[in-house]
Amino acid sequence: MSALSLQEGRTEGDFRLIGELTVEHVPDLLPRSEKLLGDVPSVRVDLSAVTRMDSAGLALLVDWFGRARSEGLKLRFDNPPDQLLDIARVSGVDKILPFSRSEGVEATPGGSATSGQAGAHNES
C-alpha cells in the first residue's frame, strides 16, 4: 500500500497527486487539500503519478470540482490514468469533470483523444 501525497508545483495553482487515490488514503488527504483552492483564479492538478484509484478517489475529484465552481475558480485535472477515466465513465461524471491530457489533447473515456481544452464547456 503506497501513501497519497498532494505536492505543490512550481507555479501557483499547480498541484500533483502522487500515489493511491483510494478509500484508504482519501480521508487523510481531505484536510491537507484545503490549500488546493486558495486565492488563485485557476487550479491544475496533475494526476499522472496516481498509481491506483477507486470510487472514493473519484468522489474527491468531484468534491474539488464542485467547490471550485462554487468559488468561481477554474479547475483542470491533467493526465488522468485510464482507470480514472473508466470509473468516471461508469459513474456518469466523465462529461462534467474537466480532464485533459498533455499538450492540449482532451482525455476521453475509451482511449480516444480529441484536440481542444477539456471541460471548457463546464467553465462559465
Notes on the structure:
This protein starts with a strand and ends in a 9-residue tail after the last strand. The chain has a single domain (4-122), classed as STAS domain (Transcription Regulator spoIIAA). The chain is 27% helix and 31% strand. It has 124 residues and is an alpha/beta fold. It has three helices and seven strands; from the N terminus they run E-E-H-E-H-E-H-E-E-E.
Q: Helix and strand layout, with pairings?
A:
Blueprint: E1 4-8, E2 14-21, H1 26-32, E3 42-53, H2 55-70, E4 74-78, H3 82-91, E5 99-100, E6 105-107, E7 113-115
Parallel strand pairs: 2-3, 3-4, 4-5
Antiparallel strand pairs: 1-2, 6-7
Name some characteristics of this structure.
124 residues; alpha/beta; Transcription Regulator spoIIAA; five-stranded mixed β-sheet; two-stranded antiparallel sheet; 7 strands; 27% helix; 31% strand; disordered C terminus
